Amino acid sequence: MHGSEYRGKRSRRQRPCPAASLVAMRTTSLRVLAGFASVCVVVGIAALATSPATAAASCEASIVPPTGAPGDLLLAVTGEPGAAVAVGIHFDGGTGRPLVVRQVAGQWQRVMIPIRNGAGTIQLQDAVTVGDRTWAVGVLRNEVPMAGWLQGDRWRWSTPIDPGGTEDEFLGVTLAEDGTLWAVGKHQQGHDYQPLIQRYDGSAWHVVASPVVSGSAVLKDIAAAADGTLWAVGWSVHDGGVTVPLIERWNGSAWVVEPTAGSGLLSGVAVDAEGVATAVGWDDSMTPARPIAFASSGGVWAALTPPAPSGRLTSVLASVGAVIAVGTVSGDTGIPQPLLVRGIGSTWSTIPPTENPSLGPVDPGGDVLNGVAGTADAFLAVGTRDTAEPFGSLVVSGGC
């Protein structure tokens, strides 16, 4: 989700994610997420400076019943816990269909999504809720950007612009204060990518120019501040596979690239009600991979000290004075486990989720959290869990 008060991605942001080797996920859904380096760390901003992560004594989280059907891959969540909407893709054998589930009276209900003739595999990768409408964006067959919205229990498709080429997709979405919907992702040019940015004004989609970024560049997430500023984050890959963070800002009339330091990729960004932005990701240039975080105060971005000793952060939500970020970490066994951290004041702390014995044994394949929604006081995270089937959904409820 993206907002500090359940306004979707206005002041938070989420995600899910494209990726490729977040361990043993037996699906193509995490195509872009892992396999890219993450950022190095220097100093923190006072509001979110960091020390080595410790257990958060005042926070708790627990794994709760999933969405139900084997083959559900949840990539993003938005809205208020208890009335949230999660999106992703459902696999039945080799066939993938767009997945939208919503919480009604605390229970997950599947939304029927009409599939256009010849649509093939559609993956929804991010979502934002404002009022009674939830927008979601994604990709058709890894080639065509897709978007649609849920109102009540009815889904409707929209028609973004397909810029052509081989691979074009949306990865992140937010709603600005003026009601404009913004979506970001990637557009293939030759063998490389450049950022794809589009906006929807309520009647039509429009391509918005991004500055040309050196290397092969992707925008993974986007968040909106109350003053109209937009932040989009991702990464660019250069000669030798060196990956560096990418941050772009909408100044009201154009997108500009913001200076960043270090190596790595950024996967999630959120903005709190006071306009403080936080971006998270990871640095794969180290072994093991290490989470990274940046914070912006007054429009100046600075790297924070690592939120945890190891792992990858995929999504973040921001409340005033505190953030919650989620992802995955490989413990001593090497098996990926859910990673949840809270940043508050000058300290990052981990929030170990409690297993639910009633959900049965877990196969030793690994868990990944891809999205988080709510506030720092009450949040809901979603992702993927290895099960007796190829995989199933993972849902974690928590609060501080």
Account of the 3D structure:
The chain is mainly β. It has no helices and 30 strands. The strands form 7 sheets. A 5-stranded mixed sheet has the order 1-26-25-24-23, with no helix packed on it. Strands 27-2-30-29-28 form a 5-stranded mixed sheet, with no helix packed on it. Strands 3-4-5-6 form a 4-stranded antiparallel sheet, with no helix packed on it. Strand 20 (277-283) and strand 21 (290-297) form a beta hairpin.
List keywords for this structure.
5-stranded mixed beta sheet, 400 residues, disordered N terminus, globular, 30 strands, 51% strand, mainly beta
Topology:
Blueprint lengths: L53 E2 L4 E5 L7 E7 L6 E8 L2 E10 L2 E4 L11 E9 L2 E8 L3 E8 L2 E4 L10 E8 L5 E9 L2 E9 L4 E3 L8 E9 L5 E8 L5 E8 L4 E4 L6 E7 L5 E7 L6 E8 L2 E4 L8 E8 L2 E9 L5 E9 L2 E4 L2 E2 L12 E8 L3 E8 L6 E8 L1
Parallel strand pairs: 1-26, 2-27
Antiparallel strand pairs: 2-30, 3-4, 4-5, 5-6, 7-8, 8-9, 9-10, 11-12, 12-13, 13-14, 15-16, 16-17, 17-18, 19-20, 20-21, 21-22, 23-24, 24-25, 25-26, 28-29, 29-30
